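The methods section describes the discrete structure representation at length, but only in general terms. The central task, working out the structure tokens from the amino acid sequence alone, is never made concrete. Nothing conveys this as quickly as seeing an actual entry. For illustration, here is how one protein appears when written out as sequence plus structure tokens:
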Amino acid sequence: MESYLGLDFGTSGARVCVVDKAETIIHEDFIAYTNTAKQSHLIWRNALHTLLKRLPTTIAAELHSIAIAATSATVLLCDKELEPTTPALLYFDNHARAESEQLKQLAPPGHIACSASSGLAKFLWLTRHTELSNVAYFLHQADWLASLLTGLGGVSDYHNALKSGYDAERLCWPDWIMHLPHAHLLPQVVAPGASITNVSSFVAQHFKINPACMVHAGTTDSIAAFIAAGVHEPGSAVTSLGTTMVLKLLSKQRVEAEKYGVYSHRFGNLWLAGGASNAGGGVLRQYFNDQKIGELSQHIDPVTNSPLDYYPLPRLGERFPINNPTLAPRLTPRPADDVLFLHGLLQGLSRIEAAGYTKLAELGASPLKSVTTVGGGAKNKVWRKIRERMLGVPLSVAEYTESAVGAALLAKRGLLLVKP
């Protein structure tokens, strides 16, 4: 039976998911990192090999294809043998502040690659602080891990390469980047899901994997989670209700607005526009634990409007859908009754979500038609009804939310990022 394997190297660990032809999950496994702030290529390689070794024999022997999702803007330099020549710079690393200032002088105004944590700023930093005589490739985390499976370096995908400055509209590295020192180290970029090559003979023999198994170009962990949610039409969106609130909307038009932290990934023949509010579940946990939120929610009437006009921020500052670094949380007056207080908080968060999708439409994105929810907040049915009332569109909860599931679906569908 053909099977399709997805790997996700996220912020807390590495996960594998295998699906069959019907896209039913037939195997899952997970390895937690012991220190999430001090990850290294050795940890990733060990996790990759361990997860492959633990595959059931029948699944390994019938694997048809593999795809990998990993954290965006986690990068490294490596030699022709694919051995890293520098420690990896993780997605949150911001050593490249001077380089980001240099890029602002070269790049178009508001370019996503100009932040100190971008892949391109890290590329400049690494090439300036490394002996380059043995360096052959600059790779993103997902690129390097895929190269361990194939033995072929120098290939990336346009999701991971976006924050390294790749032009996802024209599908090329811009001229201003190609004129940078050592630009020849940048990878060839293909579409996420594109076939790269078969697993190497070493991988096939060592892990008893089907030698005809194809390795596909990967994606980022957040986009893999979006793929897992099963959204595929313009106007369809996914709201992630975690500590913060992240909105992603499929659009026919590309949307970019540096002021609001909004940018778009190419998603097949569509664009995936996104923005993130500082508001979210983190605000709720400043006042109540999850159990208490569940208990209080049972006493809230979701069809009744709360008179409280809250803007629930965890601290000073907001970027989307309002760009105001000094915006103060608005959480008063606080009623003595915690049920009324929570009602106001949930409605305030729902109002921010609705304003976020309105802002994306104002910026040129396709109008909102439906919302699928992922994250811890998706479990709260009362909040879901309040949100549906505020959004004015159908709302559902994603069956699958793990990035490894999205990577497995990418491995199966190839260039089709969504279900045909």
Summary: The first helix runs from residue 41 to 53. The radius of gyration is 22 Å.
